Amino acid sequence: MLVTEGAAIRVIDMKIKTGLSTLILTGMGLSFINCAISNPVSTQEKRVPYKRLPLHEYHEFGKWGQSGNSRFGLAQTLEQYGGLYYPVYLIFDNSPVKPSASLFEDQQILAVGRITYFNQSLLSHFYRALFGESFESYFQVEDLIENNEELKLYYIYTGSSSEPNRKDTGAIKNELKLQIPKKNYRRILFFENGQEVARLKIAEGEWSTEKHVPDKAPMK
Fold it and tell me: If DSSP states are collapsed to H, E and C, what string results for 148-180?
């Protein structure tokens, strides 16, 4: 919509798919106001609140790596959580090895596990310590959206899941773990770097799956 007032022309409500910009022309001045917009959400969809759990929230060891480099799961009970992680008990350390059973009364845990390879040379260790790089930073949540009984997790993964031919290579069972409100979904879809890499058919009793995902699914 164009509104003319003397020498000034104002362009109002100019919407574009990649964002929202309001362009204002006032006499001799020209200014842009940009507002970044994440993935558009339709009227039938809504974003789900979540709490990201730190990598070392509990002393545990992921149960994956036998038949694939990745695991996807939804734990709605403490028993299901035990199907995803081994507890690790340490002497003189009373830190928790698993969530409390009461957490699952109104919460559930959505998990993505990856075997991440990294350079463990002294120089690389120094770099990570100097710049504060952590393995958690290899995962970044883009969006968590539900549509009726379907849940979609969008995330970015920048680590390496293919073992390089190097003697100084180490490996860690890396993960993205989200605590979300408890709700019964029919299925859950996982999107890595814009591509669907796994789905869980919760309504059919499938709450966990281990599979091989190509190294760092390419960005679309």
Answer: CCEEEEEEEECCECCCCCCCCEEEEEEEEEEEE
Q: pTM here?
A: 0.71
Amino acid type, 18: T
DSSP 8-class letter at 18: T
184/188 Cα distance (integer angstroms): 10
Tokens standing for residue 127: 């770099």
Cβ–Cβ under 8 Å, residues 207 and 80? yes
**90, 104, 115, 202, 211 from 195: Cα distances, Å:** 39, 30, 19, 20, 15
- Rounded to the nearest angstrom, the gap between the alpha carbon of residue 212 and the centroid of all alpha carbons in its chain is 18
Give the residue ranges of DSSP H helices in the chain.
78-82, 122-131
- CB atoms near residue 59 (< 10 Å): 17
Q: Cβ(133)–Cβ(127) under 8 Å?
A: yes
3-state secondary structure of 3: strand
Distance between start and end Cα atoms, the chain: 34
pLDDT band for 184, please (50, 70, 90 cuts).
very high
Model confidence over 26-56: pLDDT tens digits?
Answer: 333 333 333 334 455 666 899 999 999 988 8
pLDDT of residue 170: 73
Q: Which residues of 118-142 are buried (b: 16+ CB within 10 A; e: fewer)?
A: beeeeeeeeebeeeeeebbebbeee
